Amino acid sequence: MEQLNIETEYIKLDQFLKIVDLVSSGGEAKIIIMSGEVKVNGEVATQRGKKLRQGDIVEVGGRKIKIG
User: Fold this and answer.
1) pTM to 2 decimals?
2) Domain layout of the chain by residue ranges
3) Distance between CA 54 and CA 50 in Å, rounded?
4) How far is Cα 37 from Cα 7, in angstroms, rounded to an integer?
């Protein structure tokens, strides 16, 4: 499992997807989030602005990344 360390209290889901190069734009992030392709802690996430905090695990297309 990969890990992304953050220096802030949280990071928004759409920003996270761009940082880890899963998408190339905010529009692309919106599409994959709204289509149900993104899971946070095992549950489908459909909110672009969902706040991710340390310990959360994001899964997209079989790739799992933990927020550290």
Assistant:
1) 0.91
2) 2-67
3) 13
4) 26
